[in-house]
Amino acid sequence: MPAAAAFAPWSPEFVADPYPGFAELRRAGRVHYFEPTDQWLVPHHADVSALLRDRRLGRTYLHRFSHEEFGRTPHPPDHEPFHVLNDNGLLELEGSDHTRLRRLVSKAFTPRMVEQLAPVVHRLVDGLVTDFVAAGGGDLLTAIAEPLPVAVIAEMLGIPETDRPLLRPWSAAICGMYELNPGPETARRAVQASLEFSAYLRELIAARRKDPGDDLISGLIAAYDEGDRLTEQEMVSTCVLLLNAGHEATVNTTANGWLALFQHPGQLAALRAAPDALLPTAVEELLRYATPLQLFERWVLDDIEIDGTVVPRGAEVALLFGSANRDPARFDRPEELDLARPDNPHVSLGAGIHYCLGAPLARLELAASFGALLRAAPTLRLTAEPSWRPHFVIRGLEELLVEV
Question: What is the distance between the alpha carbons of residues 145 and 399, in angstroms, rounded to a whole number?
Fold first, then answer.
């Protein structure tokens, strides 16, 4: 069966429920060429998990090849501000550059720092939930899901409260470039946001050099290892990555996850009855079931073979996280929401050298926000059927209207 028949990422119906299409792809084989994006789709959990760890693939190819050697066209010059910002972050680097940068960033972004953030996260959650309950409910997406992770990252970076409303619009504009085949207007907005966000962070970094604090930017400035320090561009790109990656997944897992709970009243009742016992496995199950990032791209640096099909060097694979997370070959009853699921190797936070550095923080935020809402709003209910934003890769709701 042609991939195009089952995979329709620009269709609102597919975005609203991609899982039957994923099941078709899995049944039809392990790899499918998709002409509209010139990518090879990989739908099975075992393959996605293995390829995330396979060093014959990379987020970039420029550590080994020029654009010409790799058979690819360089980015348009007017997109350069976006690519300078994006390509100097941990997520896009490979080889020794990635190793060096991750080592330095890890010196500042430590488990101890995340642990110390716990009281801040709980304070922010409690404030948002208290206001939400006092108002009788509203849009859970804009009232809790969006502001919480942005506030946490801003707190980590030491961004003044008055400047924080700038962050989400910048991030949304930049993340538009991660969708499939973004258009010229999306690129224009991303370039503008890249310029503005970079200029803002350079000023903040200059201020922290003169007057260091106990925030992450000060930690990145001080990070030092074997004679290495982060360049200013690496610091800027790291801060932007922490905001973008550090809140998009949390925002959408929160809203998508609550929708999944409302659609499974038995599971929601079980969680309400024993939140402390169930929350740790519930967070993992919501990350699996309500996969926030549906697709992750990798370049093929050396020929690979998948089930007899050679995917050549220079090709791009699209690893279908949402499909992998519903693969019956790996998950028992994958289409069911089971908040007590004991064995849950979902791929929502990646794997291999690009495994999400902020995973402990994401888990902390999700457990805190779900826990606070379960306690403060034990009768929380949906008041309107939500619609999905017209984006497939970072899949999320337009709004989630509820009342307490």
Answer: 10
